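Lecture 7 notes: from sequence to structure.

We start with a single chain of 321 residues. Read the sequence below before looking at the structure.
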Amino acid sequence: MLETQLLYALHKYKDGYISGEELAGEFKVSRTSVWNYIDYFRKQGYAIEAHPNLGYRLIEIPDRMLPDEVQYGLDTKIVGKKICAYEETGSTNDVALEMANKGEPEGSVIFAESQTKGRGRLKRQWYSPKRKGLWFSLILRPDMSPQYAPIITACGAVAVAKAVGSFTGLSVWIKWPNDIFVNGKKVGGILTELSTEIDSVKFVIIGIGINVNGTKWPEELKNIATSLEEEGGRKYSRIDLSREILKSLDYYYGLIRKKYFQEIIEEWKNMSLVLGRRVRVNQGSEKYEAQAMGMDEQGALIVRTDDGFTKHIMSGDVICC
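Now the structure, written as tokens:
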């Protein structure tokens, strides 16, 4: 699209100026058309300086999850080839589910600035304040049987944790199966939902929520939730972080497609908050304590109970004692 090409040209020359005449010549449009696009970008929140003798210079991009911005420089094979963004939605997972059922391509990503019905595992509500975090869902269509679907959750958790740690310099940990922790508090989570046939997965939706900026929490979350801003002591670019996460998801999903599950498991072990610790397992009416031993190839948590039995936990809550 011409709009995207003009925007990327401004990015390319952000350390200097590019004239309206150059832009018009490069894209074979009138200078009036260039001005109209500049005016449109400004209304989207871009700060663009116009100098009569030098031309245009991009000063600042808006703090909004604009698809063109997320895709700028995003060199991925699958994840993020198509990006949609909403100012507000009930749940990005619900939107992704509807899109996947209509045949939306693998790798499509749906962002929202806020969610009114964001949710986590076990139907828990997910706090999604406007423009404070990353709230998005990813559509995948892996060639695997349903029994291996939990490894997708591990893949998402590892990809997010690695990207966040690399981007912020913070020590990031994973609490099985889907929580992302920094300094003992939850900074993000992953919700995996899937549609299956008898012996195959039709598609998987990975919902991801990351508390990026903001320091105010509802009363019930004050002692358990945190943000990257709180832990890092500064605000972070949501767009830059989103790119890092999508690149990381693309890499680790590539391992899934090649059936290289062991590399994901080893990465999970290095960042696991529960491995080697005594944990309390809650699976509906069944509750017991055990020692967390590892993860199997299907993504199940391996625990050893006090009577010496080994169990493979596919679902439920696991809490460090």
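Residues 238-257 form the longest helix (20 residues). Keep this in mind for problem set 3.
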